[in-house]
């Protein structure tokens, strides 16, 4: 199936929701952004055309559950509703999955990738371990890209930082699913997606496009002076660590290529 047909099927699927609602439209755009990033990463790893199209399609569909959350509950919380991964899988299993993948094998793999895309996959299934890093990286990169636009909502009004949230952030843990209470908690949750990303090409791009700087610039004015100072410090540390990771990867790659 060619990508233009896949995109049309995705648009037809999304018409089941209200694309005039900015919260639904945002998930639609996120699907497209994630899919394009999936395709680019798969290309950089020399995946064949069939594999590139497959993971592109999974990228389109991975967050359909978010649309269902908003339509049914007017909420994006996985704890206050039902996990969006499961909602998405259940919706696709009603028949939509067959519009995108022809074989049962592809359908089952796609559904499993969607079901696990926000939590670490610890299984040993070869194809899951081949495609999951691409899907997770593309998802997190797309979310950081969107956050840098300043359109991501904080939803919370409280000042300060929750100690457990800050501790997890400093331990380089993804804060997805962590209970947050304050504006600063929420911003740290945005930034923690950086810790999930494995591909050096995306880490370098985050630095080149100055997404961390931009996220700080667009959200720090919502904070009091003390919280602002803390966020600035954490952003500076995050950028430093990211730059060191990129440099170390480049050094190792150079050595592996014989110093040429």
Can you characterise this structure?
The chain is mostly helical and 260 residues long. The protein folds into two domains: 1-147, Hypothetical protein af1432, CATH 1.10.3210; 154-260, no CATH class. The chain contains twelve helices and no strands. The protein has helices at 3-14, 22-44, 49-61, 64-73, 84-100, 104-116, 126-147, 163-170, 183-191, 200-208, 211-219, 225-256. Helix 1 (3-14) packs parallel to helix 3 (49-61). The radius of gyration is 19 Å and the shape is globular. The model has no long low-confidence stretch (mean pLDDT 95).
- What is the total tally of β strands? 0
* N-to-C CA distance: 41 Å
Shape, per Cα inertia axes: globular
Query: How many distinct domains?
Result: 2
Helix and strand pattern: HHHHHHHHHHHH
Structural Rg: 19 Å
What is the tally of helical segments?
12
Question: What's the architecture of the largest domain in CATH terms?
Answer: Orthogonal Bundle
- What would CATH call the class of the largest domain? Mainly Alpha
Tell me roughly what share of residues is in helical segments.
Answer: 55-70%
Structure classification: mainly alpha
- State the major sheet: none
What portion of residues belong to β-strands? under 5%
Contiguous runs where pLDDT drops below 50 for at least 5 residues: none
Oligomer: single chain
């Amino acid at each position: 199936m060619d990508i233009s047909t896949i995109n049309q099927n995705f648009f037809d699927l999304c018409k089941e929701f209200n694309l005039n609602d900015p919260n639904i439209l945002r998930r639609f755009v996120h699907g497209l952004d994630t899919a394009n990033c999936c395709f680019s990463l798969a290309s950089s790893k020399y995946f064949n055309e069939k594999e590139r199209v497959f993971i592109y399609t999974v990228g389109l569909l991975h967050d359909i559950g978010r649309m269902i959350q908003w339509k049914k509950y007017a909420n994006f919380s996985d704890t206050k509703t039902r996990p969006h991964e499961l909602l998405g899988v259940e919706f696709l299993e009603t028949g939509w999955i067959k519009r995108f993948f022809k074989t049962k094998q592809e359908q089952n793999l796609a559904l499993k990738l969607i079901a696990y895309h926000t939590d670490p996959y610890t299984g040993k299934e070869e194809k899951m371990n081949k495609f999951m890093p691409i899907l997770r990286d593309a998802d997190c990169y797309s979310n950081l890209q969107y956050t840098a636009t300043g359109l991501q909502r904080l939803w919370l009004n409280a000042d300060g930082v929750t100690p457990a949230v800050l501790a997890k952030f400093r331990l380089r843990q993804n804060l997805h699913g962590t209970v947050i209470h304050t504006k600063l908690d929420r911003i740290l949750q945005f930034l923690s997606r950086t810790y999930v990303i494995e591909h050096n090409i995306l880490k370098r791009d985050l630095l080149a496009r100055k997404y961390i700087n931009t996220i700080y610039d667009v959200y720090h004015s919502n904070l009091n002076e003390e919280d602002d100072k803390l966020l600035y410090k954490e952003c500076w540390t995050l950028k430093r660590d990211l730059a060191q990771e990129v440099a170390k990867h480049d050094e190792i790659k150079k050595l592996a290529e014989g110093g040429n």
